[in-house]
Design goal:
Number of strands: 2
Shape: elongated
Distance between the termini: 59 Å
Largest sheet: 2 strands, antiparallel
Number of helices: 4
Strand content: 5-15%
Order of helices and strands: HHHHEE
Number of domains: 2
Structural class: alpha+beta
Radius of gyration: 21 Å
């Protein structure tokens, strides 16, 4: 109980969001609960507690990929794009949007 109280004192906005989410989710279908969870989570991401948590984490230096993030191929009027970052499960970001290879 003490750890819960300490966590709530450290992050009161997140604690309040959790309480309201749990109350609002009672006896609701799963999809409505997921919508509510998404709303609370995205709201918290814009808040000061999340910002402080992000700032407290050590930044990982990432080695830039030698391969382009996207491969392009054109056949006549058709343009094919293929994500090319399997080591990152083809995640795409602004940093990976450097020039494509044809």
């Amino acid at each position: 109980m003490r750890r819960t109280t300490q966590a709530a004192a450290k992050a009161p906005l997140a604690s309040l969001g959790l309480v309201q989410l749990l109350r609002a989710s009672l006896a609701r279908p799963v999809y409505e609960g997921l919508v509510a969870e998404s709303l609370v989570y995205s709201t918290l991401q814009a808040g000061p507690e999340f910002g402080a948590w992000i700032a407290s984490r050590a930044r990982k230096e990432r080695e830039p990929s030698r391969e382009p993030a996207v491969l392009m191929a054109r056949e006549g009027a058709a343009l094919s794009l293929r994500l090319n970052r399997p080591e990152k499960r083809n995640a795409f970001s602004a940093a990976s949007s450097l020039p494509c290879r044809r």
